[in-house]
Amino acid sequence: MKRKLIAALMATAMVAAMAAGCAGGAGGGSDKGTSEGGSEGGSEGGSDVITVGFAQVGAESDWRTANSESMKETFSEANGYELIFDDAQQKQENQITAIRNFIQQEVDYIVLAPVTETGWDTVLQEAKDADIPVITVDRMVDVSDDSLFVSYVGGNFQLEGAKACEWLKAYADAKGIKELNIAHIQGTIGASAQIGRTEGLENAAKEYGWNIVAQQTGEFTQAKGQEVMESMLKQHDNINVVYCENDNEAFGAIDAIKAAGKTVGPDGDILVLSFDTVKAGIEATMTGEIICNTECNPLHGPRVAELIEKLEAGEEVDKIAYVDEGIFAHGTDVAKVTVDGTDYEVTEVTQEVIDGRAY
Ligand code: GYE
Predict the structure, then answer these.
(1) How many CB atoms lie within 10 A of CB 206?
(2) Residues with Cβ within 6 A of ligand 1?
(3) Are the CB atoms for 161 and 201 separated by under 8 Å?
(4) Within a 10 A sphere around the Cβ of 100, how many other Cβ atoms?
């Protein structure tokens, strides 16, 4: 790919600025993006270093931390990359600014984990006009022209939601639970992970006659999950299931439930379902505090690198590359779930399972 003269000049200018004692962020940017080592160290012009601008969502959850680590580890100087990492603090406008900065810096690739799905047409057109390929990762964009991004790699959130709900249906049947009164703590509204997981629950509630007694966003954070659960418990005394759209919300919800004098788990008052299976989440699944945890794999660094390698070699890449994900539960009451004719085996969480996991 085109090695960018301006990027090299900027790197040189930045080294000069630093030598002069000006600690600083990426040139021209008003956001607080951290230039992870790369821009000062890496590209003494002329090398084959590939510059990647990564517009990350934020640092809202354990999942996100694992995801950022995976990206930083993969796009390292040692691997031949210069990574410009921008943390948007869950704000789309920050991501748009970051992308414009990446375009100015003439990066080789833009990698975008979009906070929400809509609102990307203009800035992605700017990237296209500048001839910079955009790879979307983790969450999807909803754009009128599909050529505005090269590829999507990440979870299939509709499928995740459907798997979780099929598990709940089978579990309720196995345990003879007749009535489900569900508190629904959603993710960031408009994010792919929220849209798909919510769709799964709403479809199942309609089909199986479940009551969604309350529905509110917990913004994928533990603090908000706790706050929302507290207020839902005050308003409804019949909640027997909480469907949290990620592990951190579940941690907060569990704290709120306990603080209200209620219990969680297979023999408790409330069943907690969650998504992600981060370390603390899978551990809580072993104890039953989270009864079912649908996996969402955050280790996207190597997957994006593979895409970039293919593009560098002039090869075709899949437009959508969903990651295979499992479903984990406390106990063995449900052995498998079936969605659209495909069976998914449910893994009972044991210490061995926990020890064998990569994140
Ligand atoms: O489930 C949540 C994070 O987009 C899949 O974002 C991701 C979600 C993940 O904050 O924990």
Answers:
(1) 10
(2) 60-61, 63-64, 138-139, 155, 191, 193, 220, 246, 275-276, 296
(3) yes
(4) 18
State the pLDDT at residue 45: 47
* pLDDT of res. 170: 98
Between the CA of 68 and the centroid of ligand 1 the distance, in Å, is 12
Q: Ligand 1 centroid vs 63 CA: distance in angstroms?
A: 6
Give the single-character DSSP code of 168.
H
Q: Report the pLDDT value the prediction gives residue 19, as an integer from 0 to 100.
A: 40
Rounded (10°) CA dihedral 94, 99, 100, 106: 150
Q: What is the pLDDT, as a whole number, of residue 46?
A: 52
Ligand 1 centroid to Cα of residue 286, in Å, is 21
pLDDT of residue 26: 35
> Which residue ranges of the chain lie beneath pLDDT 70?
1-47
Q: Which atom of ligand 1 is nearest to the CA of 155?
A: 5
pLDDT of residue 47: 63
**CA-to-CA distance for 71 and 323, rounded, in angstroms?**
16
Ligand 1: distance of its center to the CA of 290 in Å?
17
Instruction: Specify the DSSP element, H or E, that contains 182.
Output: strand 181-186
